[in-house]
Amino acid sequence: MLRAAPKTAGEYVPLVGLRDVAVDYGALRVLQPTDLTIAEGEFLTILGPSGSGKTTILKLIGGFLSPSAGQVSFKAADITGLPPERRPFNTVFQDYALFPHMSVAENVAYSLRVKGASRSERLDEARKALELVGLAGFGDRKVAQLSGGQQQRVALARAIVAKPSLILLDEPLSALDAALRHQMQSFLKSIQRQLGTTFVFVTHDQQEALAMSDRIVVMNVGRIVQIGSPAEIYNDPFNAFVATFIGRNNLLPATPLPEHRDRFTTEIGVVQARSGEAAGVDADCQLAIRPECISVRRRGLELASEQKNRIEGVVREVAFAGTHYGYRVAAGARCTVTLECSGRHNETDGPLSVGEDVEMSFDPQDTRIIRT
Amino acid sequence: MSARHILTYLVAILPLGLFIGYPLGALLWSSVSTSNEGAVTYTLAFLAEALSSPAYLAVLGVTLVICIATAIISVAIALPMALFVWSRPARYQPIALLVLILPMFMSYIVKIYTMRSLLGLNGFFNQLLLTTGIVDKPTTLFLFNRGSILATFVVLYIPFAALPIYLSLERVPANFVLAGRDLGASYARALKDIVLPLASPGIVAAALFAFILALGDFVTPQMVGGPSGMTFGRIVWSQFGLAFNYSLGAALGIVLLVVTVAALAGSGLASRALTARMGR
Amino acid sequence: MTDISRRGFAAMIGAVGAYIAAPAVLRAQETELRVYTWEGYAEPEFVLKFEAANGCKLKLTYTGSVDEMFAKMQGSKGQDFDIVSFDTGSTGRYVEQKLIQPLDTILLPGRAGMIPVFQQQPSLELDGKLWGVPHAWGSLPLIYSKEAFPTAPESWAVLWDPQYAQQVIALDDAINNTALAALILGFPDPYNLTDDQLAAVKAKLIEIKGNLLSYFAGYDEGVSIFVDNGAKLMFAMGEPQAKSLRDKGADVACTIPKEGGIGWIDCQFITAGAKDVALAHKWIEACLDRSVGEIMSKKVGYGNVLDDSLNREIGMTYADRLKYLARPESYDKRIKIWNEVKAA
Q: Which domains, and CATH codes, for chain C?
């Protein structure tokens, strides 16, 4: 069952590729022509809101859907017309699709039964797969007797038992409650590491994507918007959609100052952005500052660190979130800035309250330019 | 028990007693009693006659064979039809289902006449055979024999078989076939391993419907069966409708009832066994 | 419910009740004769005349079958109707169940003009009393294709002739089939057979099955099977079937072969529960008028009980060669034999 250690970073072997793949439903194009390469051994997450085309990509890889145009390949082979049963991939379905008339072990071993494996081999492999997912001894139970989390594990065991080249996971955690979801995230990640199998994970939950993935594919309205590691996606969002869909961001409409290509006029005054990044930006754009990158203090107190960008404002909302406080601060005439004060940033001498005058500051390094 | 509870029970039990218990009781009572000028005598002679007459038993045998064949053939035809409807996109399913069960709303007699004109000497099949030159003279092989009873039963009862199959298919999540194929099974294999076991209660119900409807049908055999159109239902009917021998009619009716109940019980067991076995 | 609304409710129920009851009350003022009969036996031509002459109203109820009629009569013990019309073969049953009452011959002078065979029908005279008066008759003839038979078949035996395999149809009825077989076998009383004779009848009826295309269960059913399947011979339910067949383009004729045939006589009876017995007698007497018989013979095609010239006109010249339906020695035995024949 156990495989070699996962491929080390940089060792990039293409496993599955989509080339100019598009999908139409009648006159409606649900997937614009798309290119995507999935590397062997990676945990790739396809992230996007509903209707973004993420499940369409999953179906294309799984063979549940034929593209209207383009090509799907596996290693060097064209598998565009190959039916799902002939692709070496297995899927964990959103609702698990466990077969209620079969026991847990029969469910897990079903793919082996189809392949004609002997009963003893099937039982043996099912037992190993169930052990791996932490359900040793559950083989004889009925599916209906299991909890949601246990069913999830059975579905995973069923998908891995035949040692597929790739496992597709279609929002498998969406039916679980928050605590169980977090637990399953790290569990899935660790299984993937152990097996070294390529996982393609579809979700609309950005936190899930950030926590689990080697790479994230962000999709919106039938297109791939950005592909990158979680850090890249988080830190360098390609556009306003990515900036706001993954994590939270303050977006400020901005106009570059002539001769100072990293300085911009905004509603809250002149703001300096990350240097060098602005090269080529002449037109209006947006500046993105994450809430946790903004420091705040009561007006009149000294800021601990001198940062170049400073704004004044009035606290409008206060929300305690356990690890931090969240504030919404009115700055300028029409602009509201969201910020978070965790231990590191809290230089306010105790939590602020609504109506207090504050001064906020943020580093140009944390100020990203978003092209519109 | 509160007054409301009692009322609920009454509402549930009263019609049951009135429409099922009472006729059943009357049937049982008739089968063991006979009245002459108001004097009632009790006897098991009628039941004995019903069970011992070689002629009746022979007809019962033939009837059972025809009805079992009806059940099997109806299911064999209804199953692919129901699967077809079930595999349509959800929004087309209601209309497809309607087409499937539309014949249910047609008059039973009209359908029998239609079958007769299809199978008759001047009917569609004979015309077809004549036109294609397979025969040079119309044949009476299609009509007025046991085969035509079977064919008409099947045509009549396919919708009644298709409906329960579809209803049980409808409870099978649509992605189970995909899940099966994802795990390497062909479409046919996924149907066999996953969908059919889960739909087996509906399949058994379908067979049962076709069987019981055919068993009780005494019009079709008469109309298309010709000289061999004698079925057990007709014997029962003849005792009530012609001989006014209610006691023997009731006794024969009891035999029919026992067969029906046995079929019900058998199908219950079959359903459970089938689901369990096909899952392995 | 408040007191007022309860009173209102009661008043409403009362009003509804009165509304429903009203027409019945009004109707009761006019004398009504309730006649339970067959279509064709109460044509408006003579019904209206009778109503006008007697200041009454006929309430006609038609039956679909002999069995329905008997069941309905039995259900109400004859209270729902004044006049009922059925064939001679059923008289015994009705008398036994006390559903009909004896007739007063003084009130029926028209009987004197009847053809003798109908005037003196033993099956209508039980316990020394007269129970019914015939008003139409017919036979269960052999209908044959004139194309296949340029001259009428002489014997019923033609039905058994293997030459006509799959071209023969027969009505599906226990009493008629057993009686016909008895006639052909030469038994003197086809309605009163010994067990040995019944066994012979059974064998004879099983023998015909190889020739039979199908049995038929109704008048139109017989016509349609005959036409749709090119049958040549039919043990028919009645002469009118030949007319229907000709209407459908089949060139057929009726015959009563040399062995004779089965006949039926439909008679009118007065029920045990008749309200106006005198009026009921008047109706039966009115039906014995020549004009009534003429309408029934010419319009509907039934045999006439009064005037043989009318019968000759429509080709029904064999009234005295028929064995008219009578109560068989045992319904049970005949049904059993018939079931066994069909199951064979």
A: 3-137+265-318 (3.40.190.10), 139-262+322-343 (3.40.190.10)
